[in-house]
TrEMBL record:
Segments forming a coiled coil: none
Name of the protein described by the UniProt record: NAD(P)-binding protein
Listed Pfam families: adh_short (PF00106)
GO molecular function annotation: oxidoreductase activity
Keyword Protein biosynthesis: no
Keywords per UniProt: Oxidoreductase
Length: 339
């Protein structure tokens, strides 16, 4: 499938966003990353209104997280909201979050990985990876795999179908990976840990969203326990703090103008996260799916091409190799829970 900018803009102007889907979440545990603001915050409110037994707000700032927790409690009347600190720019923080969560909780029904950054500036994290690649892809992948065993156990114990939701974007239609990248010994290191990778920053956000789609499809194919569903929703172009790192004499006014003309509300965008988390229950089409406007959509032509299949498998193997270096516990999880 091809999706031009003009087609996206026309859709933003003419298509009505479906109403939020609803389900009784009593007794269920939900984790939403990046939930102190924006899409994650609005999605967390929806889950709270549905009576979730526990909602974990995962974000970097204790102050902002505490404020979000308090506001959600007031706005929804659900008092079962907690803050766990999580900095996706730090693998140590991701591992600490996973350790704490699995120690303090006996179930996880919904994991919404929403936190992301968008920047054209090349910067390395303390772990030596380009920031947006680590925050948008590598850390969420690590977190999903570390929490997978608990989600499988939740399915078995409570006879439910947990979901992992990795927020992607329609911008994944506008990029692909060059053969020289995929054929390199270590594509991820080339893209995100070497100084020359700065040349890839022009399409960095789009690339990270493409990697989200690849991860969801690859993980779904390899799950031994089909009791867990994993998918990737597109919230559309919404008012968001995501673009706070954009700068420049031309870029900043252009983004502002696009938001005024085209942007949906943050709450409207959050409905896609909620649909991915609870919509179409029992339907296999939700497995490994790319979702937009509360429907399963075909991803980009590159994703479904033979070239894309090769890229997906190479990037998956590359990712697992890197994650095992970051956290040796990933090795045992892969052996037990994945094909």
């Amino acid at each position: 499938m091809k999706l031009s900018f003009l087609k996206v803009a026309w859709g933003q102007l003419t298509l009505s966003v479906p109403s939020v889907v609803k389900e009784n979440l009593e007794g269920k545990t939900v984790v939403v990353t990046g939930a102190n603001i924006g899409l994650g915050f609005e999605a967390a409110k929806h889950f709270a209104r549905m009576g979730a037994g526990k909602i974990i707000i995962a974000c970097r700032s204790k102050k902002k997280g505490d404020e979000a927790v308090a506001k959600i409690k007031v706005d929804t009347g659900n008092k079962n909201v907690e803050l766990y600190l999580l900095d996706l720019a730090s693998f140590a923080s991701v591992k600490a979050f996973a350790e704490r969560f699995t120690k303090e909780n006996d179930r996880l029904d919904i994991l919404v990985e929403n936190a992301a950054v968008a920047t054209s500036k090349f910067e390395l994290t303390e772990d030596g990876w380009e920031t947006s690649l680590q925050v948008n892809d590598i850390s969420p992948s690590l977190l999903a795999l570390r929490l997978l065993p608990l989600m499988v156990e939740t399915a078995k114990t409570h006879r439910t179908t947990p979901r992992i939701v990795v927020v992607s974007s329609e911008t994944h239609y506008w990029t692909s990976f060059a053969k020289e990248v995929i054929d390199s010994p270590n594509p991820l290191r080339l893209l995100g840990a070497e100084k020359e990778s700065a040349k890839h920053m022009k399409t960095r956000y789009e690339d990270t969203k493409l990697l989200n789609v690849f991860f969801v499809r690859a993980l779904n194919e390899r799950l031994v326990h089909k009791s867990v569903v994993v998918n990737a929703p597109n919230p559309g172009f919404c008012y968001s703090g995501l673009r706070r790192n954009f700068s420049g004499i031309v870029v900043t006014p252009l983004v502002w103008l696009m938001e005024v003309i085209l942007a949906r509300t943050t709450e409207e965008g959050s409905r896609q996260l909620v649909f991915a988390a609870i919509g179409n229950e029992g339907k296999d089409e939700m497995r490994g799916a790319y979702i937009s406007m509360s429907e399963v959509n075909e991803p980009s032509d590159f994703v479904i091409s033979e070239e894309g299949r090769v890229a997906q498998d190479k990037l998956w193997d590359n990712l697992i190799d890197e994650l095992i270096k970051i956290d040796p516990k990933v090795r045992d999880i892969v052996r037990e829970y994945l094909k």
